[in-house]
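anyone seen this seq b4? input:
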Amino acid sequence: MMIHLRNTILFLFLLCCSATYSQAFYNIMDYGAVSDTTRLSTSAIQKAIDDCSAHGGGVVWVPAGDYLIGTIQLKSFVNLHLDAGATIYASRRSEDFSNFIRNIGAADNAEAEMLIGAVDARDISITGQGILHCRAERVGYRREPKTVVTDSITAREIVNAGQYGVDYQNKFRKVPPYPGAINFTGCTNVQIRGIQIIESSFWSVHLQWCDRVYVDGIYIMSDPHNGVNADGLDIDGCSNVMVSNCRIDTGDDALCLKTTRQNGRTQPCQYITISNCILTSSSAALKIGTESHDDFEHITVSNCVINQANRGLNIIVRDGGTVRNVVFSNLTINTVRKETFWWGNGDPIWFTIQKRGDIPFAGNIENITLSNIIAHGQSGIRMEGFSNRMKNIRLRDIQLFMEPENAVDKRSRNGFLFYGVDELSLVDCFVKWNKEKPEKEWERAYFFQNVNDLSLVRVRGDKAPGSSYDAFGYEGCENVIIEK
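predicted toks r here
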């Protein structure tokens, strides 16, 4: 009697909360799901979803309890609602997962499975206060030393680590199966709200080639020590995306925009807003790239906090795409050095263009504005156009506080470093060094190399403590205007 009463109350509540919910209501327990982590409920949940979609859509309700599943496929017009107290656990048996979608990423991730997937569906959502727990397992290993190539994204760090005698070979790998929590491909009108996503083996939420995406109020966590490939939220070739009010704390990249290529197909990432989020990562907190086979444009990031990340804001262009018309504003950033095998130098901001492989064109970074940013970093702010020149980069009211590194292999040298940039403007920026715990490797507050059309207005910074370098350095620059 109490169970039927609770179902009735929740049904009425869902109807009243939002007009988007259908009158159809499907309880997974009625289809044979059991709150028992020793018995699979995959078929029961899939039957509820299939029935809901076949009858025009509605709410598939996961009541409080612990459920074990392999892959389930979300279908059009279905809202999968996880009640408070509901946890869906991923099976640890590979045979319980299907591969009707493949996660896309580096070659070593080609076998990644998924927990909840959808292909070419419309009007789908996952909501509630429940948990998706992917139960990732990882083991440590030593990778074979590799010859450092000149265009490697981490070549400088590897060489530098060797000079300090640091062992760079320890790393972690995933133990099969490798489920990510959510993978939606080619879907329209996607909503993910309120849920928690814990310990994915692969990208926690991968949204690829979707249109009209709304992600709000979710929490994503993966182990900061060994969570390799366990990105938080990956927006991949999507359009018309709003991400807000999220807390993402991951080993690998926290929030990443990508344009991957699959079977010759790629799509641009465009018309995207990210706001009111708190991000932490042992790699990059917020990144555009590195997979950059198509363009990224019309993107804003505002009112966010980046805390205890190895890298803060990143744009890494490698595969021929262009990043343009992007605004970063009203941010606080705190970066620290993480374990050596993680990419990152404790740099609050790093933009780079570095061609990957034998392609004719690396891509571009142009029309980028950064404003109202306070950054505390164990390295500086770097913008480096190695394979192509960046263009029209504007920095306004950027405060950089240089902090000592908590690592043996010191990497930090300069506060702001710019290389290969055209039309660079800095207004009301300053660098402040930690004079109580200075690093002897620190050099300049600002270093401009191969920069054309440079404008500095009320830009301040002193020499680094104990440094023999001037506060401002210029090499190969043309058309420099300085206003006090």
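Helices lie at 2-17, 42-54, 155-163. The radius of gyration is 24 Å. kinda curious what u guys think
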